[in-house]
Amino acid sequence: MDTRKSYFYYIKFLMMIVGIWGLSDHNSSRIKKKFYATYSVLFQLVYLSAMVSLSADLPSLLKTNSPIAMENMGRFIFCLVTMIKMVMCRSKGVLDLIEDALRQDRELFVQDDTEIGNIYRWHVNFDNKIISLIVTSAALVSLSIAVIGDANAMRRFKKGNATESPLPLHYWYPFNTDKYFTFVIIDQNVRPTLVLFCLGVVSAFVNCLIIFMRAQLMALQFNFRHFHQYRSHRSPEDILKLLCIKHQGLIKCIGQFNASLKNIILLEYTIVSITFGTVILQITAKNQIVVNSLALIFTTIQLLAFSWSSNEIIVQSSELAVALFESNWCDQNKQTKKLIQIMMMRCQRPLCLRIGQLGLMDLNAGMSRLKLGYSYTSVMSKRE
Fold it and tell me: 128: burial class by Cβ within 10 Å (0-12, 13-18, 19+)?
């Protein structure tokens, strides 16, 4: 099997780069496994050090009521949420979910049916585009931070102004930054790049799982609609029973996803409005307009990608009953018709992803977060 064509090939590669791919490759040697485990720990320590550097000066900044404090607070919260996601990605529940998704991926990959293959390939291409969009937008934010930091540093050296801070990020350092200024500039280039790349990969991974569920639902729709055309020694009733088992497996998979990630999605949806509003305030205050504009785009892409993908789960699961109705059910025997009726009754209850206990994760939820962000901006602007 050509793994380059598999659904999870690129996201697996990216997750291995940031050290959060929790499944071990049985073909790898013991030395490679130990090396990757060490690399994973070191990468996450770098990420943790960035969170510590952001939060160390936060109490003193908050006392000054400075816009920089809100900026650092927003960045710290995003880093914290991503760190929790990284831990969740290595939890047993998520690892079991990934293993099940990889098994389903292999089954879809070897499908002989042309239509199923087309559905699978479309979702592979679409998911790769979403991954590229999210990771690229994160990379643009990190690049802008690095470029602005370097430009400010050069301006400081030319002007000889020791009082003007040339650093785009307000990291805490346990030493004199003027004395080790070159190291600080390198650090302000490297750590934000690693952190934002990791943030983009983790967000892309969660979205990748949701889109894969959509692919399974659409493949199941096709199977429901054409169950009577299967070239098999099995009867239509037996084929329907197998499809019913697949449907139950998909229901279990989505339930497992909700159980594993609903709280972290709740946390992200809760803080995204504040972060969204804070970034807008920074832009209106003309504070690092380029960086904050790109951060605003990145935040919006993340939110809308999650919302659209999860909304599609609701839509496509609702279409399963329609697919059964459009099948050749009228020509089946009484037992098969009864089975179809039971399956249609179950399909009337759409599958959905949830934001904790607050409700469904759909487009309405995403748009309400954006509106809440604008409301937060309006309130904070009036206070100033």
Answer: middle
Spell out the residues 6+ positions from residue 375 whose beta carbon is closer than 8 angstroms to its own: 277
d(CA 216, CA 45): 37
Sign of CA dihedral 330, 331, 334, 337: negative
**Domain span at residue 173?**
3-383
Report, in angstroms and rounded to the nearest whole number, the Rg of the chain calculated over CA atoms.
24
Q: Which pLDDT value is given to residue 323?
A: 92
Eight-state DSSP code of residue 347: H
Quote the DSSP letter at residue 25.
P
Query: What is the C-alpha separation between 33 and 356, in angstroms, rounded?
Result: 35
pLDDT, mean over the chain? 79
The contacts of residue 216 (CB under 8 Å, 6+ apart) are 104, 108, 250, 253
Three-state SS for 354?
A: strand
Please count the structural domains in the chain. 1
pTM (two decimals): 0.84
pLDDT at 3 (0 to 100): 46
Q: Where are the alpha helices (DSSP H) in 163-288?
A: 181-225, 236-284
- DSSP category for residue 173: -
Identity (one letter) of the amino acid at 56? A
Q: What is the H or E stretch that residue 328 is in?
A: none
Q: Which residue in the block uniquely carries the two structure tokens 């995003």?
A: 78
d(CA 197, CA 18): 8
- CA-based nearest residue to 253, from 308, 205, 210: 210
Give the tens place of pLDDT for each residue, 242-284.
899 989 988 988 888 888 777 777 776 766 666 666 666 666 6
Please say whether the beta carbons of 275 and 299 come within 8 A: yes
CB 101 within 8 A of CB 253: yes
3-state secondary structure of 360: strand
Which of 208, 209, 220, 218 lies closest to 249 in space, CA to CA? 220
Query: In this structure, are residues 326 and 225 in contact, taking their beta carbons and an 8 Å threshold?
Result: yes
- For residue 1, name the pLDDT band (cuts at 50, 70, 90): very low
Mean pLDDT of the 229-234 span: 73
For residue 146, what are its two tokens?
């690095």
Give the list of residues 6+ apart from residue 384 with CB closer than 8 angstroms, or none: none
Q: Which two tokens stand for residue 136?
A: 């690229």
